[in-house]
Amino acid sequence: MFGLGTTELILILIIVIVLFGAKRLPQVGAGLANGIKSFRSNISDGEKKDEPAGDDVSDKK
User: Fold this and answer.
1) Is the pTM for the entire model greater than 0.70?
2) pLDDT tens digits, 28-60
3) 3-state secondary structure at position 41
4) For every residue of the chain, which 3-state class applies, written as one string?
5) What is the spatial distance between Cα 31 and Cα 25, in angstroms, rounded to a whole number?
6) Dist CA 18 CA 16 (whole Å)
7) So what's the pLDDT on residue 35?
């Protein structure tokens, strides 16, 4: 996708572990998951608001 290979992903993982520590890693993952879940729900709510309601459509003759 971004041209990241196995070596680059391992290096990024090591840097993240060094920065946040192994104990805070689950908290960071949970926070990221909650953010993604909130983002997806807001996107789907926005799509529902954009759809026209079936009752508001007038008959064209």
Assistant:
1) no
2) 889 999 999 999 999 888 777 766 655 555 555
3) helix
4) CCCCCHHHHHHHHHHHHHHHCCCCHHHHHHHHHHHHHHHHHHHHHHHHHHCCCHHHCCCCC
5) 10
6) 5
7) 94
